[in-house]
């Protein structure tokens, strides 16, 4: 399938290792399909441990010269990469929509969000300050410096095919570290297009390599190889735990952005129209396939019906369709496995007494398209209360008091994002302080930005991405004690 892009060179079906475009050693490939049409877009190399090892060794070889550069010199290259991403925003968005399914407008938004991490960290790399500490003895001086941790391995998911990469590559490269990336097998072309632009920006060979293929073989080499000093992962909690175990053997530093089960609370003093707008954005963005999507919507008793009605009206206006064809607000789900999970959650809820207030079934468009769905009368014993649905299902729970809903919100092993709507200042502080989450959206459904720290507590992860906190994960502290003064 020929994609409608201006610069055909951005669409690559080979991997980028040590500055070379290469096939798998075995010559084997994997098909990549468009979830909106089920058409095969092309193939990617089916690589494994050997190719990954070469990428890691090349990264290590490139590291010395890169870390010796000044922050400003590194920043100049990163800035070029950012500019190229923005100049090619339309093509990058088209590639993304074709492999991922999100509406083109959302894909364009993601490209600029993705680019923002490169721009931001290009600047932040200049502010990696150390410390001088008053010494404990008169003839000593204590200096603390921060150094790049070394070779970084990154594994990223399909829901944000560009931004999950640049959030890791931006701070790693700015801090002076090379990075080897395994993108999701469903969405490799966005990653490979980023590599084309990195090459054009003048990033030296070996500093950003992209390896596609067997997740377990590539992941095994990334976690087992002692050259890799840091693993940064975004994906499911299940795979995150496995990678942490694998990384333990060589005591790698890890960053984990894992699953969520976001509560979205609407109090009786909320601006209901704003809450509906926030719920739509938080719940249905990317067809419900983000780790910060509202998963459990708690509505206070006295406004429950009014909120449900308004949400239903808003959902009724959403247009479902192929993201590349005209105005759509909701694309397909990533695959049929995702559809099956959404159906299971709906069946489980309705089997236990919930009602379908909107949608509830596969969309007439077929394939993995699904109707935006609202469930009412949802209770804590249903699967949607415990597991991330990762689809367009808004389950509405009813609650009575602030204390009760805080308890419900925290009753999960996850702790990524929480949202609530209230106009009572006292309540805003009380609730914000008591929810056990890394990110709290107050009177807003959209919290992602490169300037703020994104990350979770409990089983939602370790570390933060974006902001001044996000670069720390790629640095080691060195303490120098000078005596005999
Ligand atoms: P999702 O449900 O988003 O697909 P996964 O955690 O399965 O979540 O996938 C996230 C990333 O982890 C993808 O790049 C995937 O290929 C990769 N992955 C899956 N299994 C493994 C594994 N055993 N080792 C390393 N990476 C893996």
UniProtKB/TrEMBL annotation:
Keywords: Oxidoreductase. Belongs to the aldehyde dehydrogenase family. InterPro entries: Ald_DH/histidinol_DH, Ald_DH_C, Ald_DH_CS_CYS, Ald_DH_CS_GLU, Ald_DH_N, Aldehyde_DH_dom, Aldehyde_DH_Superfamily, Succ_semiAld_DH. It comes from the Bacteria. Pfam families: Aldedh. This is NADP-dependent succinate-semialdehyde dehydrogenase. The active site is at residue 257. SUPFAM superfamilies: ALDH-like. It comes from Dongia soli. Residues 21-479 form the Aldehyde dehydrogenase domain.
């Amino acid at each position: 399938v020929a994609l409608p892009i201006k610069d055909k060179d951005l669409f690559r079906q080979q991997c980028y290792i040590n500055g070379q475009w290469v096939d798998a050693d075995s010559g084997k490939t994997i098909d990549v399909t468009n979830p909106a049409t089920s058409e095969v877009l092309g193939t990617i190399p089916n690589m494994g441990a050997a190719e990954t090892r070469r990428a890691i060794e090349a990264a290590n070889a490139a590291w010395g010269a890169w870390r010796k550069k000044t922050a400003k010199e590194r920043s100049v290259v990163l800035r070029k990469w950012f500019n190229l991403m923005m100049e090619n925003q339309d093509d990058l968005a088209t590639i993304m929509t074709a492999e991922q399914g999100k509406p083109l407008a959302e894909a364009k938004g993601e490209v600029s969000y993705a680019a923002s991490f490169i721009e931001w960290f290009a600047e932040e790399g200049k502010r990696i300050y150390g410390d001088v500490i008053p010494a404990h003895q008169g003839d000593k001086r204590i200096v603390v410096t921060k150094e790049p941790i070394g070779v970084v391995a990154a594994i990223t998911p399909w829901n944000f095919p560009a931004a999950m990469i640049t959030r890791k590559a931006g701070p790693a490269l700015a801090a002076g570290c090379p990075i080897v990336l395994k993108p999701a097998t469903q969405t490799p072309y966005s990653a490979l297009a980023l590599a084309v632009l990195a090459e054009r920006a003048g990033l030296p060979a070996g500093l950003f390599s992209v390896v596609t293929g067997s997740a377990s073989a590539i992941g095994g080499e990334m976690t087992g190889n002692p050259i890799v000093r840091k693993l940064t992962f975004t994906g499911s909690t299940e795979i995150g735990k496995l990678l942490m175990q694998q990384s333990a053997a060589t005591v790698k530093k890890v960053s984990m952005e894992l699953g969520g089960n976001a509560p979205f609370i609407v109090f009786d003093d909320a601006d209901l129209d704003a809450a509906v707008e926030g719920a739509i954005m938080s719940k249905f963005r990317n067809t419900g396939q983000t780790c910060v999507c509202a998963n459990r919507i708690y509505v206070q008793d006295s406004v429950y019906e009014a909120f449900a009605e308004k949400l239903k009206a808003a959902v009724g206006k959403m247009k479902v369709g192929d993201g590349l064809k005209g105005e759509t607000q909701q694309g397909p789900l990533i695959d049929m496995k995702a559809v099956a999970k959404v159906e299971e959650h709906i069946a489980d809820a309705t089997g236990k007494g919930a009602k379908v207030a909107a949608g509830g079934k596969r969309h007439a468009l077929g394939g993995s398209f699904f109707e935006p769905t609202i469930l009412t009368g949802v209770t804590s014993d249903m699967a949607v209360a415990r597991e991330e649905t990762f689809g367009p299902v808004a389950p509405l729970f009813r609650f009575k008091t602030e204390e009760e809903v805080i308890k419900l919100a925290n009753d999960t092993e996850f702790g990524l994002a929480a949202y609530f709507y209230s106009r009572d200042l006292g309540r805003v502080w009380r609730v914000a302080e008591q929810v056990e989450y890394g990110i709290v959206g107050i009177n807003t459904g959209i919290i992602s930005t490169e300037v703020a720290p994104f990350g979770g507590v409990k089983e939602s992860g370790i570390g933060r991405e974006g902001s001044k906190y996000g670069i720390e994960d790629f640095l080691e502290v060195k303490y120098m004690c000078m005596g005999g003064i």
